[in-house]
Amino acid sequence: MSASPTTPTLRERLRSPEPVLAPGVYDALTALIAEQAGFEAVYLSGGAVAYTQFGRSDVGLTTAKEAADTLARITDRVRLPVIVDADTGFGNALNTQRTVRDFERAGAAMIQLEDQTFPKRCGHLDNKAVVPAAEMCGKLRAALDARHCADTLILARTDALAIEGLAAAMDRAEAYLACGVDAIFIEAVRTTDDMDAVCGRFAHRVPLLANMIEGGKTPVQSSDELGRRGFRIVIYPGGTARFAARQLQRYYASVKAHGGTREMQAEMFDFDGLNALIGTPELLARGKGYE
To answer: What's this model's pTM, rounded to 2 decimal places?
Structure first.
């Protein structure tokens, strides 16, 4: 969703030296709770869509429409900028153009495109493969041409580190930056020394994204630590789904064991509490104004 007159666009916010901390969301409710917590942006990953909409792994099973529909429901509910994972663009350069237009219409503030082959897989799984850098550059140029608004940012991600090594991944990032993209993301950097090497080469020229995956390949750090290294966007894309899944395991196990929810009620919203969170009284009052 576009920023309000008093809210900076994501492009404007990225001019600040402090990193943007964007937690992962997977639907309108999680985005609303993140907005109420005071975050400046949120991140919608392809993995989160796969986990929560289909109960499936992040191995390229979701479609562009399924991701765009999820995005549209989020941007209809919150005013936060949404950074959205568009995987590989869901095909070739022409498919990528359609994806960018669909995601832009759905309210994306930043659209992430990666150089994996299709179907892709989570960047922290093994046995990935990447397309030639020249092919990815064509897709990025197509994406930049497809957007209608300059404030719709294009983020280029490379997964080449696991296949070709850090030097080659940085060379790819250099080529993608030359295409004119707005931000760079080198996925699954393994060590803090390598993180510093990436920042040393790029941080003074373009916003860099750091992807924090609990149990993944990159050392997990706070946004303050990553900001001091030079990263300008920090995401925790799957943490929300992982936390919710763990807590729901506890909830369902308790209901099954005790035949009800009494033992869990202290950790839950009651009926009125949830309605207060989602704004039911305000919604009903607004509807009454049309009677």
So the answer is: 0.94
